[in-house]
From TrEMBL:
Superkingdom in the source lineage: Bacteria
Protein's job: Catalyzes the phosphorylation of the beta-carboxyl group of aspartic acid with ATP to yield 4-phospho-L-aspartate, which is involved in the branched biosynthetic pathway leading to the biosynthesis of amino acids threonine, isoleucine and methionine.
Cell wall biogenesis/degradation keyword on record: no
InterPro entries attached to this UniProt entry: AceGlu_kinase-like_sf, ACT-like_dom_sf, ACT_Aspartokinase, ACT_dom, Asp/Glu/Uridylate_kinase, Asp_kin_monofn, Asp_kinase, Aspartate_kinase_CS
Domain (ACT) ranges: 376-439
Enzyme class of the recorded protein, top EC level: transferase
Keywords: Amino-acid biosynthesis, ATP-binding, Diaminopimelate biosynthesis, Kinase, Lysine biosynthesis, Nucleotide-binding, Transferase
EC code(s) of this entry: 2.7.2.4
Name under which the protein is recorded: Aspartokinase
GO terms, molecular function: aspartate kinase activity
Family (UniProt): Belongs to the aspartokinase family.
Catalytic activity annotation: L-aspartate + ATP = 4-phospho-L-aspartate + ADP
This protein's pathway: Amino-acid biosynthesis; L-methionine biosynthesis via de novo pathway; L-homoserine from L-aspartate: step 1/3; Amino-acid biosynthesis; L-lysine biosynthesis via DAP pathway; (S)-tetrahydrodipicolinate from L-aspartate: step 1/4; Amino-acid biosynthesis; L-threonine biosynthesis; L-threonine from L-aspartate: step 1/5
Length: 439
């Protein structure tokens, strides 16, 4: 049996956290391949090493003095090395990094050093072999992850290695330069390694006891989800459940490998199992709730728009022309609404409105800003009557004005639009009605 274990930044923020990780790995011989993130926050006010690297590199790129900022990063690693009593020096590594920053090696290179250096420490601490992710994870000429090339190289390389540490978050592009995944991407690395070694399980260790029904920063003591499907998890993580990167399921899903999200600070707890399919009923009608703030609704009205062939396509062209991505699009007979990210849309709204006018000549266009979208996700919802009704009544009781409600055709999720200000209360109200009443 082979297990791949990924430890997030919160699990590796200090020597004390490293020691817990060491105990977890040594407790099970099958934990043979380890994927570390960069050191995360030691407390709420702390800064992740990845963020320190981005700011340090921004100074280098602006040709300002970055040596002080780099020294602070070195101190974080040295405090881990000293706290673990290792006889390891990263002096040579930091000299190389300083030179490469001065030569403007790129933002991705800079950010990747967080995982690279932590991987060297982890390998030294465990007595495992260190494998640079740049040698085994590849992106193609369009910048997309190269599944085929990576799987082949990774499987070949690891077939000769009994126990190894492979840093998360990065690989190399088609020119051999370092390239990172998007933020939180070490979760993807763990999934890629799991597929290549045919792991029996991919353990993803973090600072909470699994994927919880709602974000614990909003709902105190949110319950852990025991079993969730890949599809449900993807919906939740895309909509803001940041415990797992939304793309991390793809490699393992192809190989049918379950993901187990576990808590480094409470390893005895079972955590969450993420699987293809399950006959196990969820504890509640819903599996989870997640959401994001910061959307604008663009309402487009035109009498009889439903009989105008190509209306929606042409209206959407207005967004494409202006480089705006679309998040969600509920529609009615004479109206369609397009939800876009406020950050992306601000400053371009007049261009988009004039494009819509030119392309579809609507009767009315109006904008509503400062909205939040909430996804209520659950495989059990389609067999339970009245789910949407319960959501409505919970929100009405909490005095929350529902701007939009939309059920996907898969009946796996219901999307609700509320004002940004009502976001937290809406999530709490939905959590209470389904979880606290135990139905
Ligand atoms: N539904 C959820 N379940 C669990 N954690 C969540 C959820 N939504 C948001 N989170 C947040 O995700 C955090 C874990 O992800 P992250 O900070 O990326 O950890 P790591 O550093 O281990 O990768 C938790 O501490 C929690 O605040
Ligand atoms: N360190 C990177 C990649 C990562 O996955 O980190 P974490 O496992 O701490 O979310 C980031 O901050 O984005």
């Amino acid at each position: 049996m082979v297990k791949v274990v990924k430890f997030g930044g919160s699990s590796l923020a200090s020597a004390a956290q490293f020691a817990k990780v060491g105990d977890i790995i040594r407790a099970d011989e099958s934990r043979r391949y380890v994927v570390p993130s960069a050191p995360g926050k030691r407390n709420a006010k702390d800064t992740k090493v990845t963020d320190m690297l981005y700011s340090c590199y921004a100074l280098a790129e602006a040709e300002e003095d970055f040596k002080g900022a780099l020294k602070k990063i070195k101190e974080r690693y040295n405090s881990i090395i000293n706290g673990l009593n290792l006889t390891l020096s990263l002096e040579d590594e930091f000299r190389t990094i300083e030179k490469n920053f001065a030569d403007k090696a790129g933002e991705d290179y800079a950010a990747s050093r967080g995982e690279y250096l932590n991987g060297i420490i982890m390998a030294n601490y465990l007595g495992y072999e260190f494998i640079d992710a740049a040698e085994v994870i590849f992106f193609d000429e369009n910048g997309n992850f190269d599944d085929y090339k990576t799987d082949k190289a990774m499987a070949e390389r690891l077939s000769h290695v009994e126990k190894a540490v492979i840093p998360g978050f990065y690989g190399s592009d088609s020119n051999g330069n370092v390239k990172t995944f998007s933020r939180g991407g070490s979760d993807i690395t763990g999934s890629i390694v799991s597929k290549a070694v045919h792991a029996s399980v991919y353990e993803n260790w973090t600072d909470v006891s699994g994927c919880l029904v709602a974000d614990p920063r909003i709902v105190e003591n949110a319950q852990p989800i025991k079993v969730i499907t890949y599809r449900e998890l993807r919906e939740l993580s895309y909509m803001g459940a940041s415990v797992l990167h939304e793309d991390a399921i793809f490699p393992v899903r192809k190989a049918g490998i379950p993901i187990n999200i576990k808590n480094t600070n409470a390893p005895e707890e079972p955590g969450t199992m993420i699987v293809e399919s399950t006959c196990q009923k969820a504890d509640y009608t819903i599996t989870g709730i997640a959401g994001k703030r910061g959307f604008v609704a663009v309402n487009i009205d035109k009498d009889m728009m439903n009989s105008e062939v190509g209306f929606c396509r042409k209206a959407l062209e207005a967004f494409e022309e202006n480089g705006i991505s679309i998040e969600h699009m509920p529609s009615g007979i004479d109206t369609m609404t397009v939800f876009v990210h406020q950050e992306e849309f601000e400053g371009k709204e007049q261009q988009v409105i004039s494009s819509i006018r030119r392309l579809v000549n609507p009767d009315i266009i109006d904008l509503e800003a400062d909205l939040a979208l909430i996804a209520v996700v659950g495989r059990g919802m389609k067999s339970t009557r009245g789910t949407a009704g319960r959501i409505f009544s919970a929100l009405a009781h909490a005095n929350i004005n529902v701007k939009m409600i939309d059920q996907g055709s898969s009946e796996l999720n219901i999307i609700i639009g509320v004002s940004n200000n009502d976001f937290d209360n809406a999530i709490k109200a939905i959590y209470d009605i389904f979880v606290m009443t135990q139905i």
